[in-house]
Design brief:
Elements (H helix, E strand, L loop, with lengths): L7 H15 L6 E3 L4 H10 L4 E4 L3 H8 L7 E4 L9 E4 L2 E4 L5 H6 L1 H6 L1 H8 L4 H4 L4 H6 L52 H8 L3 E6 L2 E6 L4 E2 L2 E2 L6 E8 L6 E7 L10 E10 L2 E10 L6 E2 L1 H7 L6 H11 L11 H14 L1
Parallel strand pairs: 1-3, 2-3
Antiparallel strand pairs: 4-5, 5-10, 6-7, 6-10, 8-9, 11-12, 12-13, 13-14
Helix pairs in contact: 10-11, 11-12
Length: 344
Amino acid sequence: MERSPIGQEEIEKAFSWLNQYWGRPLKPLYYSPKTIEEALSLLENYRGEAKLIAGGIDLIGLMKNKVVFPKVLINLKKIDSLKYIKENENGIDIGPLCLIHDISQSTIIKESLPMLSELSRSIASPQIRNMATIAGNLCQDVRCWYYRRSKSTGISFNCLRKKGNKCFAINGENEYHAIFGEGGCVAVCPSDFATGLTALDGEIQTITPRGERKIPISQFYTVFGHILEPDEIITNIHIPKTDPSAKHRYIKFRQRRAIDFSIVNVYTIISIYEDVIKRARIVIGGVAPIPYRAIYAEKILEGEKLTKNLLEEVADTSVKEAIPLKKNSYKVSIVRALVKRSLI
């Protein structure tokens, strides 16, 4: 006797039963909405159990290591309204689903913010840049090996990010961890865009079923990651108009030129009028759980002429608050060198 084909509803019921039986999803339910409204409805229905995915570069790795167990995946790729790069009198707007490759090749970005184009080209490899989105880069999780290990990898660490009561990196393998900040989690923010957009006074616009909000990039991160709610979607990344005469520099130090994450990166902006620095911005990445702004170093620059002695003082001041761990004090020298080089 020929069996009738099994319908999608029966398949979902079977997976739902297995999910409950094992206490974790054997296979996440998968949705591919075509509108923001549809995505918000799904997030509301599965609040706390769903994860958004676009490029999937970071999330898939976390799922493979069984660090996260989403019961539902909501793929935003088909929402075309979230893919754009536009410029107007107020600045530049970038859609959250814009690929990093597209940002690096955008005529608008190359002409108005060429250093952001250079920053984009420095991220990962061509293959990853053709999959990863700007929102994914901003929202990616930390690379700390203690956090990313689970029992399935042979050993697990119940660290602060996993609701434990200890950061294992503080007295462990910490050569790539934070040199700024006191106590708590010492994993660093891995996003290159976070550094650049903080220097550029960028703003993230989001939406939830309850409404919309605007978040300055400088307030987007905490010691334990970004502040997005489980049912919140990024709808726009805004970069306000910048001084066209200002000098921008982005420098990134890593072990290999391609693929590797930053050990340290620096984005600086200085506006000079009649040889005097009127405004300075120094933001350092790879050294703290959030993009680190060297405010005291900025103040030393403003109102002064750029000299060799001033550069030395600014470089020293940029690491004045550093508290390196046992194995990462080398980062202090790298920060000093990059800050100085970026201002020359």
